[in-house]
Design a protein that fits this description.
Layout: H1 3-40, E1 45-48, H2 52-65, E2 77-79, H3 84-94, H4 101-107, E3 113-117, H5 124-136, E4 139-145, E5 157-161, H6 167-225
Parallel strand pairs: 1-2, 1-3, 3-4, 4-5
């Protein structure tokens, strides 16, 4: 116990994160690209999970809606874990397995991106929501751990913390993955915006300046021809 236990927990957390990035940085890079492209096209992000994963869903959605590091316009992101009336009415009338799937059915559209968070990969309500996403044409990203469970084979993009089966270590790595996602998507969108602004300003500004003398000359000529 004591400091040895503290060091052991920190070492286990660091090891899980280092193994993830060593093996799956390419998968995370693809997810960053997919997410940035969807937001640039006006699509919406959805996040859902249970327990600690529900808290992660709310945390990450808030980072997109408000901001992560950059001062920029809000980005459309929704956590499906926050509407207590929707959650309880769906659970009461149809069962807890459908609390996320019915919200996807109501709110999501083709081209949106859904982040399904389950440390085991076997949460039934998360799996049912992923199935609904596939029917709707919503791209899916699975954040899971261990073997990946049933979620691994159902999502379009898998981010699996497979270096551990400890729930706490998986959740800690999930939030680091989420922060990397937020930071790099934000930067990519800012770079795309800067590139568009430069492209819009560059070619058009010079011709406008060049045309002004000609416009003024024509106006002067018209005034001179008047009797």
């Amino acid at each position: 116990m004591g400091q040895d236990a503290i060091r052991r927990i920190f070492a286990a957390t660091a090891a899980a994160q280092q193994r993830f990035v060593a093996q799956h940085a390419d998968a995370l890079e693809r997810v960053i690209g997919v997410t940035a492209d969807a937001l640039a096209a006006g699509r919406t992000l959805f996040f859902f999970g249970n327990g600690g994963s529900a808290a992660d869903a709310q945390h990450l959605a808030a980072e997109f809606v408000n901001r992560y590091r950059l001062a920029r316009a809000p980005l459309p992101a929704v956590a499906l874990t926050t509407d207590s009336s929707a959650l309880t009415s769906i659970a009461n009338d149809f069962g807890y397995d459908l609390v996320f799937a019915k919200q996807i059915q109501a709110l999501a559209r083709r081209g949106d991106v859904a982040f399904a968070i389950s440390t085991s990969g076997n949460a039934t309500n998360v799996l049912r929501a992923v199935d609904e996403c596939r029917r709707t044409g919503v791209l899916t990203v699975g954040l899971t751990g261990g073997s990946g469970g049933k979620l691994a084979e159902r999502v379009d993009h898998l981010l699996c913390v497979d270096g551990t089966r400890e729930t706490a270590r998986i959740q800690e790595t999930h939030i680091v993955i989420g922060h990397v996602l937020c930071e790099l998507v934000e930067l990519r969108l800012a770079e795309q915006g800067d590139a568009r602004s430069a492209g819009d300003a560059g070619p058009s500004s010079v011709p406008r300046r060049a045309r002004r003398p000609a416009t003024a000359s024509r106006a002067t000529a018209k005034r001179r021809r008047r009797p």
